[in-house]
Amino acid sequence: MFNCYKCITCTRKKQDVESSGNSGASKLLGEGGFGRVYSVPGGGSNNTLYAVKVAEPQNPQQLERLEMEILIHGSLQHDRIVRMLDWVETQIGQFYICLEYCEVGSLYSYAEQLTQEKRHMDSQQIRFIFRQLVEGCEYLHERCIIHRDLKPQNILLTSSLDVKITDFGLAIIKPGQGAVWASVWGVLDTFRPRCCWSPGTRQQQTSGPWAAYCSGCTLGSSPFRKEISKAGIIEEKSAASPLFGRRL
Fold first, then answer.
1. Residue 88's beta-bridge partner residues?
2. Left, alpha or beta for 147 (phi > 0: left; psi -120 to 50: alpha)?
3. Nearest 10 degrees: Cα torsion 240, 156, 165, 224
C-alpha cells in the first residue's frame, strides 16, 4: 500500500545522503525553479518506486503558483497524466508531492539517449507516442485546463513507452472563451508563433497544438535552429507564419 510519509522519510534521507557525498537507493531525477524531484521507495513488499517533488516556495507568488499546481494536478485522473498520489506540507514550509514514477524518464532524455546510441524511432513508435500525447491534451482541454509548458522534458514515458504528461506548475484553468492573458509562459522553442505577438495586439491563444507538434514530431529537437538567438528564433517564426505580429 502507498505510504506518503514513508516516501517523505526516504526523501529526507536521500537529501542527507547527498550532503554527505554517499550513495543511496534513491536518486535525484531533476530540479526546477524552486524544487527537486527524487525517486524513492514507497515501502510495501515489492518496494515500489515513486517520484517525490520537494518544493520550497520562497515568496507568496511561488506559493500561490505551487498551490494552483497541486489543485489542478490533484484533480486529474487519466492514463496519459502522471498520477498525483498525495501531498504534504511540513511545519517549515516544505511541500512533498508524491507522484507516479515513470521508468524511462522524459521524452527529451529518451530521444537524447537514442541519438547517442545512433538509433531512432520508427514511424509506428512516433505515431504511438504522438497519439497518446494528443489524448492527454484532449482530456485537459475538455476540463478547461491549459498546460502552458508542454515540452519533451515534461512528457514522461513508462517502460512500455506509454505517455504521461507532468509538471503543471504553469497550468491554469481557462476562465472563458473570450479571455485575454496578460502574460505568456513556457519555453521559446515550443512557443506557437501566435504566442509571440507583442502586448496589446496578442489575442488569446493556447499553445497546446503547437507544443504537441514540436514535442511529438521532432522528438526533443526544436524546429528552429538552436544556435541562433532569441530574436533570430522570433524572426524565423515570423517568416513561417503569416499571422505572426510585430517583433518583440
1. 96
2. alpha
3. -10
- At which of 54, 75, 99 does a domain end? 99
Place of cell 491534451: 137
**DSSP character at residue 202:** P
Catalytic residues: 149
pLDDT tens digits, residue range 186-224? Answer: 565 555 555 555 554 444 444 555 555 555 545 445 554
In a domain, 228, yes or no: yes
- The backbone torsions φ and ψ at residue 22, rounded to the nearest 5 degrees and listed phi first, read -90, 170
Question: Which three three-digit cell numbers place residue 219?
Answer: 522528438
How confident is the model over 10-58, as pLDDT tens digits? 555 555 434 434 444 578 898 877 789 999 887 666 678 899 999 999 9
Residue 25: inside a domain, yes or no?
Answer: yes
Please indicate, yes or no, if residue 245 is contained in any of the structural domains. no
In the numeric block, the cell 526544436 is attached to: 222
**Domain of 12?**
4-99
Please report how many Cα atoms fall inside a 13 Å half-sphere around the Cα of residue 83, on the Cβ side: 11
Same domain (yes/no): 141, 95: no
> 51: domain CATH number?
3.30.200.20
DSSP code for 113: H
